[in-house]
Amino acid sequence: MSRLEEKLFQEYNQFFEKAERERRWNVYTDIPWTQVNREASLDLALCAETFCSVEMYLPDYVAGGINVVRKYFGQAWFQANWGYEESKHSLALMQYLLKSGKRTEEQMMDLQNRLFEKKWDLPFHTARQMTFYGCVQEMATCVIYLKHRERAAAENDVCLRTIYDYVARDEMAHTRFYQGVIKVLLEEDRLGTLADMAHVFANFEMPGVGLVPDYDSRILKMRDAGIDRSVFIQKIYMPILKYLGVGRHEMLAAQRTALEARADGRAAEAAATPIVVPAS
Amino acid sequence: MTDKKNLLEMFKTVATRVDKREFNHLTRESVITDLGIDSLSMMQIVGEMETELGVMIPDEDLVELVTVGDLCGKVEARLQAEA
């Protein structure tokens, strides 16, 4: 085992031990299912359905994610555990939608069928880039779940608030694992890792984009809970850099290269798009 | 001394360099998101202006930026504080 592999395994071992000792929860016995507020708003359910929909692409996330890190024991085993934990998130949210009376089994089945018409593809193709993507995505998801936890609490839905509590805690634990791995990778190759971080930041999209039906209108409902672009800098970008011990100015060179590449890509895309002249 | 007009011109120059497009009609009242500048590009613009001017805006001030004038105001305040 190389020094890098050994460090990655240590990160996983710490993560897994903590998960086993302190963080396990049971979908069937730990959620107060009798405290669903059936009078809660339809928007609350719509947002829960959106989260559930994004989590439903689990087979694609697991298949893509585990293969890209297959040769790193610690990271591959993490992905297996990650899949188990994320599967509970979609189950809990699905149960909530049914028990709240906001969705029927038939509606959920129909949604699943529509979801599986599309497939999630890896947004990045190296282990290091996917690790940082995981870090940003889990942090963003955690922030969003915490916002919606407040919203569920405001609507006196103890059940949904509890689900968001557990799910957000899992997402933060996943973020910490990824951050631990990135710290190791920064020690190994600081410039290369900074370049990958900048590339991921510049091209980051949440996994539901382009997949979940009516995603744009769903996002508008999410923003009602206070999730917008300014949150990205305050709650995601800066905290991640701070935790990793990377200064804003240290990112500038790598970020410049990544933003230039993104701008070039967009210009090329625009140039390749045919201009449609309306018939007179 | 970097005056208000120069700061606005500097913003235009740096934004053009970062986003690779022109920002001819930009004013201090322009809302950053309306200009199509996303949060990461904005961080780059801020960082490059800080480097050129030799100032550092505290991180907590950066989350409050809505208009171009907000950023120019923060830079002016730092320049005055360090003069």
Assign the CATH superfamily of chain A: Ribonucleotide Reductase, subunit A
Quote the CATH topology of chain B.
Non-ribosomal Peptide Synthetase Peptidyl Carrier Protein, Chain A
Quick one: biggest sheet of chain B?
A: none
- Report on the biggest sheet of chain A: none
| Relative strand content of chain B | under 5%
Number of helices of chain B: 4
Q: What's the mean pLDDT score of chain A?
A: 92
Name the structural class of chain B: mainly alpha
CA(first)-CA(last) distance of chain A: 70 Å
Integer tally of domains of chain B = 1
Name the CATH class of chain B: Mainly Alpha
Low-confidence stretches of chain B: none
What is the CATH architecture term of chain A?
A: Orthogonal Bundle
Overall pLDDT of chain B, averaged?
Answer: 90
Textual characterization of the structure:
- The complex is a heterodimer of chains A (280) and B (83).
- Chain A is an all-alpha fold and 280 residues long.
- Chain A has a single domain, classed as Ribonucleotide Reductase, subunit A (Orthogonal Bundle), CATH 1.10.620.
- Chain A is 72% helix and 0% strand.
- Chain A has eleven helices and no strands.
- In chain A, helix 6 packs antiparallel against helix 7.
- Chain A starts with a helix and ends in an 8-residue tail after the last helix.
- The mean pLDDT of chain A is 92.
- Chain B has 83 residues and is mainly α.
- Chain B has a single domain, classed as ACP-like (Non-ribosomal Peptide Synthetase Peptidyl Carrier Protein, Chain A, Orthogonal Bundle).
- Chain B contains four helices and no strands.
